[in-house]
Specification:
This is Nitronate monooxygenase. The longest helix is centred in the N-terminal third of the chain and has 19 residues, at about 105-125. With about 500 residues, the chain is of the alpha/beta class. The protein is globular. The strands form 5 sheets. It has an 8-stranded parallel beta sheet with strand order 2-12-11-10-9-5-4-3. Strands 7-15-16 form a 3-stranded mixed beta sheet, with no helix packed on it. It has one domain: TIM Barrel (Alpha-Beta Barrel), CATH 3.20.20. About 30% of the residues lie in helices and about 15% in strands. The chain has helices at about 25-30, 45-55, 60-65, 70-80, 105-125, 140-150, 165-175, 200-205, 225-235, 275-280, 295-305, 315, 325-340, 370, 405-410, 420-430, 470-475, 485, and strands spanning about 5, 10-15, 35-40, 130-135, 155-160, 180-185, 185, 195-200, 215-220, 240-245, 285-290, 310, 345, 355-360, 385-390, 395, 480. It has 18 helices and 17 strands. Bound molecules: flavin mononucleotide (FMN). Flavin mononucleotide binds near residues 314 and 317.
Length: about 500
């Protein structure tokens, strides 16, 4: 099997995987292997402050912070959070909640610096391309996050989990040194309401703004309708689309047809969810296919449809360089070796209301018995929803928080059923889980695609306990011949 491709865009995009599963190390390795490495931009402020409190082993955070162009800002963060040698085991970590609608300069600095650090490290020491992935559902930190990533010279911004129509125009404005604003979804907002967040690079930098390149913008979509709308009505140019199907890891778009479930409560996808790729191609932009494209055969099949390439997550999620903690990789490797891992498309787990893929692991948050013993608490808040209060001001609530608190804020008790604390679970997955004063510690919550068993193909021998990002790329690119004359253009 061989396919000839001839274009300057990457064939493989390593999908953004939050929180910090696709961290700077993974993205850098993928980029060094000639493809597009993407860091997750989700909750990077929380990630940075926890890495600093754990002593920043290896000094990578501090090395990148020393390169931040406004050094006083980086120093203030170090001063507040860095703990030499790291906090003792079991000692609670200082928390940072997601920033409010009108953040202070200090809150903005943390988000900007955190995004700068992750992209800076991913780009360090090579000339490859690096992208950053954001979720449209998490809106409050988006503007300073994009700015921080642009300060570090990010090449692509990728966004899904919603309708990212304002992002391309925001990239244009920041590249012109101008302020940008973005409307915020608020439950109960009326037609005349104008809830927006704003960020002014000139004000933030006190007038000392460097020249910034405009990164390309790729929208992650699950339908032609959305891709077509974005290509006509987004606030600026959308440089391409990632068409993601319902077998992909992470959040999935809800089914478009009637809302039916199987006997495990998993949403059922049907004919209306099959994307017409000819219609996507007719939009005239590069596009990549995602969701179980982790084999060379699938890559070749994608190229035959006219796609520029594929976006792959699960295969990279468990490679050596990914941010998942070592014990999680061991558990998953054993599951894959000993049988079929059980991946549930959980329609309730995520507070966003979007289906979320959850790998069933005993003793993790997916284990109902264990989860019921957890004290419900919302202390990161990245997935909270804004709602309009009777007095016209805005409140914030999360269906995974304490039920009484959620319903007191007008939330529907029904919406709390089956919800998991995705924010805390994802932090635990990467070794940055919260330890509480009462001795409790947060549990992991692992997401991956339906094709997780396929990671076997990257292991060199049946007993292998690891594989690298380069192994994945070598396997996926087998049989693909790059027309380098065109690719170099
Ligand atoms: C662990 C994990 C976390 C993910 N997190 C995100 C995310 O934060 N944002 C996003 O747009 N996609 C996320 N995804 C989806 C990937 O970017 C990618 O599109 C998807 O994994 C492709 O399908 P595959 O898993 O079958 O390879 C995640 C996937 C995995 C496996």
């Amino acid at each position: 099997m061989s396919s000839i491709i001839s274009r300057p865009e990457p064939t493989i995009i390593q999908g953004g995987m939050g929180v910090a599963v696709s961290d700077w190390r993974l993205a850098r390795s993928v980029s060094q292997a000639g493809q597009l490495g993407v860091v997750s931009g989700t909750a990077l402020d929380a990630v940075l402050v926890r890495r600093l409190q754990l002593g920043d082993p290896g000094g990578d955070m501090r090395r990148a912070m020393a390169e931040f162009p406004y050094i006083d800002m980086a120093d203030r963060i170090l001063e507040k959070y860095f703990v030499e040698g790291g906090k003792a085991d079991g000692e609670p970590l200082k928390n940072t909640m997601v920033i409010p609608m009108e953040p202070t300069q200090e809150q903005l600095e943390l988000v900007v610096v955190a995004n700068f650090v992750e992209v800076f490290l991913a780009k360090e020491g090579h000339d490859g391309l690096i992208g950053v992935n954001f979720l449209e559902k998490i809106q409050l930190p988006t503007l300073p996050s994009i700015f921080g990533a642009m300060l570090a010279g990010v090449d692509y911004v990728l966004m899904g989990a919603g309708i990212p129509r304002y992002i391309p125009g925001i990239l244009d404005r920041f590249a012109e040194g101008k302020a940008a604003e973005m409307p915020i979804h608020i439950v109960g907002a009326e037609k005349d309401d104008n809830f927006v967040v704003k960020f002014d690079p000139v004000e933030f930098t006190n007038g000392e703004l460097p020249w910034l390149n405009r990164p390309k913008f790729l929208a992650i979509v699950a339908s032609v309708t959305l891709a077509s709308m974005l290509s006509k009505k987004a606030s600026g140019y959308v440089d391409g689309f990632i068409v993601e199907g319902p077998t992909a890891g992470g959040h999935n778009a809800p089914p478009r047809g009637p809302k039916t479930t199987n006997d495990r409560g998993e949403p059922l996808y049907g004919k209306r969810d099959v994307v017409d790729l000819a219609a996507i191609a007719a939009l005239g932009r590069p596009f990549w296919l995602a969701g179980s494209y982790g084999t060379p055969e699938q890559v070749a099949k994608a190229l035959e449809t006219g796609a520029t390439g594929v976006q792959v997550g699960t295969a990279f999620a468990f490679c050596e360089e990914s941010g998942f903690g070592g014990d999680i990789k061991d558990i998953v490797f054993n599951m894959v070796r000993d049988g079929e891992p059980d991946v549930k498309t959980d329609g309730q787990a995520s507070p966003t209301g979007f289906p979320f893929k959850v790998l069933q692991i005993e003793g993790s948050m997916s284990d109902q018995k264990v989860y019921e013993q957890r004290t419900r608490v919302c202390d990161l808040g990245f997935l909270r929803e804004g709602f309009k209060k009777e007095d016209g001001t805005i409140g914030w609530r999360c269906p995974s928080e304490k039920i009484a608190a959620f319903t007191y804020k007008g939330g529907d008790a029904e919406a709390t059923v089956g919800r998991k604390c995705v924010c805390n679970g994802l932090m635990t997955n990467i070794g940055l889980g919260q330890r509480r004063k009462n001795g409790e510690h947060e549990l992991p919550l692992v997401t991956c695609g339906n094709d997780v068993a396929g990671i076997k193909r990257f292991m060199k021998t049946p007993d292998s306990t690891s594989y690298s990002a380069a192994d994945v790329i070598e396997c996926l690119m087998a049989g693909i011949i790059i027309d380098s004359a065109v690719a170099a253009r």
